[in-house]
């Protein structure tokens, strides 16, 4: 086949592949968001039972759409006017459904009032069980004759003992807001607060939702400025939007910074636009291929993967630098295919070694790292294929600018440094510093330290929690059973124990479905007690109140949670049924210290499984486990890479190639200890990437260290890599900044150590290379 036809065929194949992936990405992105911003999606599932995991996820999905707003002012009328405006805004916006508290209360009244004789408050139940029926009557009379009771004649005729009123007030004792003229109003800390609830029409993790939430926050700020009130809000959506905005900004800064650095370097060294276009071509191929493969395998790509993966793919420009440097430094006739044959063995060996190191990320079982391993390995492979297959076709002519003097100057400096005694002392100093830092190193595996919410959002969340008592921390008792009735009875048994924990100060309170809807068995018991009350006290209450007729006990009809859930949305109770048929309910615990647990709680209830779930604690424990696992994988990866190199190289050469990355890893891990800051899992994960990136420097300086083009390429690669990962240190995400700092130190150390170890006594022709 003629060379021109072969060139055309390669271009056609490449264009078809790129077009296919691009169309695939656009198609998948049209049906669902391909960028995931859920921080918890990065983390592994806990080791609890699968059904409990499903229950927690189902409950979390119900909670994630909730939005809570507090409008506060010193002046009640001012706060009320702002609340009315905000309610009107939410009502006119299809993206948020406002929960109408007045309508909700009416719906609940219509459902529960007919069942008033089977819904007893704890005091009434205790009196009736003790056959102190007159106490119920006496309490009712005291309330009726109180000037502030607000009891109507219609209410007395249907519920003379005020059973429903007292049952409702029992739940309202911990509710800090009262319904006044259709508004939930409270007076705390000398100020007036109006409470408004809403629900998002779509998941907060959908990409389209972020813009809507941003608009919502802007409107809240505008209303606050115009009315002079304080507006606080709480909800998962606000944190997701902030994280998404930060990720987009950082992707632009880190990716844009890396790109700008590459552009400046290429134009400064090669003095031509063609090398720049070639670099963008190979990097773009890598990014698109990695993005497509990740979305196909995982269904989406996380913003975390995009930030880190984009920088790792940026390392793929190293392959382009080696080829372009050889082309620019070739004095005699330029033969591109001969150049590729010269570079291919070391480039392929470097790729295999890097992918082998990155594959260690995938062996951890950590979702974030598995995705990053695939993204990086596919991207680097695609970028190298672009260099090997397409570059020769696009560079038939010699370079227009020949930076041979610049390359020789760099080579001479590196050669003197690599063969001097100074580097021996430098190696010893780095090892001593590393030992000192490692001795002081401390780890903090608490996942909450990795979340980087702004002080503004934290202030909002704390304010809403303090005023409403709604704690968003996921510290739950998860109950699993065959029916909701079994769960109600189990909740009743657990509530008696939880009251003791409140008295001890372990928790400040709890919410359960049973507090709102008792079990059918308890409703039947209450019904029988009410029957005795009517029998014993109906004549007395009728005479005292002058009622026209004797109270009649209505027919018993159990109220179920399903009825309540359908009647009123937005209740702070969590229960449901999984697809497998298992029912679940959740008791949310309030005021429990983040690192505490419910020790001594008896959860051995027949037919019901009870689990204590503290998601943050569980994930932190898993991160502790994975940290040790990744450290082991680093050691295994070093051994595997060494073994792979010994297949093609001598043991001495393999040792010289592996040692700089290994020493660099030790120094990088020691840096947090030297700075007096805690390290985390992502500092350890960075070691695998240091190993993968640094191997290229060692390989080229070991086997092409005698050639000026190789030294220049390694310098350019080191600079771009440092800029890429150095910018990560500026990230607001603590995981990303930890990652970037560790890799930056490791890359700098490996770049300094590679000439001293891999290139030492080897700035001579180890492999004879033709001029071109």
From TrEMBL:
Q: According to its record, what are the GO cellular component terms?
A: plasma membrane
TM ranges: 12-29, 251-270, 277-298, 304-324, 345-363, 369-391, 422-441, 626-647, 654-675, 681-700, 712-730, 736-758
Keywords, A to Z, come to: Cell membrane, Membrane, Transmembrane, Transmembrane helix
State the organism named in the record.
Paraferrimonas sedimenticola
Main localization is membrane
Q: How does it sit in the membrane?
A: Multi-pass membrane protein
The Membrane transport protein MMPL domain extends over 175-394
> Which Pfam families does the protein's record reference?
MMPL
Supply the InterPro entries for this chain. Answer: MMPL_dom, Mycobact_MmpL
Note the superkingdom of the native organism.
Answer: Bacteria
Localization recorded for this chain is:
Cell membrane
Q: What is this protein called?
A: Membrane protein
């Amino acid at each position: 086949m003629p060379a021109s036809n072969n060139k055309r065929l390669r271009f056609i194949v490449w264009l078809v592949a790129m077009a296919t992936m691009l169309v695939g990405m656009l198609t998948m992105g049209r049906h669902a968001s391909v960028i995931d911003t859920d921080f918890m999606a990065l983390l592994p599932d806990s080791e609890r039972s699968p059904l409990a995991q499903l229950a927690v996820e189902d409950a979390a999905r119900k909670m994630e759409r909730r939005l809570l707003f507090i409008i506060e002012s010193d002046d009640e009328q001012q706060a009320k006017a702002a609340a009315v405006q905000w309610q009107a805004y939410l009502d006119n916006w299809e993206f948020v459904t406002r929960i109408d508290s007045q309508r909700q209360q009416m719906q609940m009244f219509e459902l529960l009032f007919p069942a008033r004789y089977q819904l007893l408050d704890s005091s009434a139940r205790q009196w009736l069980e003790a056959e102190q029926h007159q106490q119920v009557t006496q309490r009712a009379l005291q309330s009726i004759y109180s000037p502030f009771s607000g009891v109507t004649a219609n209410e007395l005729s249907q519920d003379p003992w005020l059973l429903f009123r007292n049952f409702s007030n029992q739940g309202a004792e911990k509710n800090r807001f009262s319904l006044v003229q259709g508004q939930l109003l409270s007076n705390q800390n000398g100020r007036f607060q109006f409470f408004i609830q809403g629900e998002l029409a779509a998941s907060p993790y959908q990409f389209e939702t972020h813009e809507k939430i941003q608009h919502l926050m802007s409107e809240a700020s505008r209303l606050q400025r115009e009315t002079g009130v304080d507006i606080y809000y709480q909800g998962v959506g606000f944190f997701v939007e902030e994280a998404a905005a930060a990720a987009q900004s950082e992707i632009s800064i880190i990716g844009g910074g890396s790109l700008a650095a590459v552009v400046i370097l290429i134009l400064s060294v090669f003095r031509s636009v063609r090398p720049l276009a070639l670099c963008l071509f190979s990097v773009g191929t890598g990014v698109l291929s990695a993005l497509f493969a990740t979305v196909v395998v995982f269904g989406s790509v996380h913003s975390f993967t995009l930030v880190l993966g984009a920088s790792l793919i940026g390392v793929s420009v190293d392959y382009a630098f080696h080829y372009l440097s050889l082309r620019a430094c070739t004095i005699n006739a330029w033969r591109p295919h001969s150049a590729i044959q010269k570079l291919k063995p070391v480039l392929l060996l470097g790729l295999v070694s890097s992918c082998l190191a990155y594959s260690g990320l995938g062996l951890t079982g950590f979702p974030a790292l598995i995705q990053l391993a695939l993204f990086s390995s596919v991207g680097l492979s695609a970028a190298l294929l672009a260099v090997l297959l397409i570059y020769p076709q696009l560079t038939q002519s010699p370079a227009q600018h020949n930076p041979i003097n610049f390359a020789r100057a760099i080579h001479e400096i590196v050669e003197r440094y690599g063969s001097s005694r100074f580097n021996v002392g430098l190696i010893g100093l780095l090892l001593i510093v590393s030992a000192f830092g490692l001795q002081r190193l401390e780890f903090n595996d608490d996942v909450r330290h990795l979340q980087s919410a702004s002080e503004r959002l934290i202030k909002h969340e704390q304010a809403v929690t303090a005023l409403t008592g709604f704690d968003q921390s996921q510290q739950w008792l998860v109950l699993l059973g065959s029916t909701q009735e079994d769960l109600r009875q189990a909740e009743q048994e657990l509530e008696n124990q939880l009251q003791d924990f409140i008295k001890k100060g372990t928790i400040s309170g709890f919410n359960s479905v049973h507090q709102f809807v008792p079990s059918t068995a308890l409703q039947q018991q209450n019904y029988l007690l009410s029957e005795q009350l009517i029998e014993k006290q109906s004549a007395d209450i009728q005479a005292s109140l002058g009622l026209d007729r004797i109270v009649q006990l209505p027919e018993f009809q159990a109220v179920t949670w399903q009825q309540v859930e359908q009647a009123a949305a937005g209740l702070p109770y969590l229960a449901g049924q999984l697809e497998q048929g298992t029912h679940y309910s959740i008791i949310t615990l309030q005021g429990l210290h983040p690192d505490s647990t419910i020790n001594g709680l008896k959860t051995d209830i027949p037919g019901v499984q009870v689990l204590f779930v503290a998601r943050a604690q569980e994930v932190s424990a898993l991160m502790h486990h994975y940290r040790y696992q990744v450290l082991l994988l680093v050691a295994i990866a070093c051994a595997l890479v060494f073994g792979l190199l010994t297949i093609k190289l001598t043991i001495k050469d393999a040792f010289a190639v592996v040692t700089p990355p290994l020493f660099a890893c030790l120094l990088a891990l020691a840096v947090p200890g030297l700075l007096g800051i805690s390290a985390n899992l992502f500092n350890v994960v960075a070691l695998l990437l240091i190993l993968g990136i640094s191997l290229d420097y060692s390989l080229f300086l070991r086997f092409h260290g005698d050639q000026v083009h190789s030294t220049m390429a390694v310098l350019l690669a080191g600079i771009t890599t440092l800029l890429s990962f150095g910018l990560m240190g500026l990230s607001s995400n603590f995981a990303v900044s930890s990652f970037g700092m560790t890799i930056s130190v490791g890359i700098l150390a490996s770049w300094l150590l590679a000439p001293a170890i891999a290139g030492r006594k080897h700035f001579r022709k180890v492999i004879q290379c033709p001029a071109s």
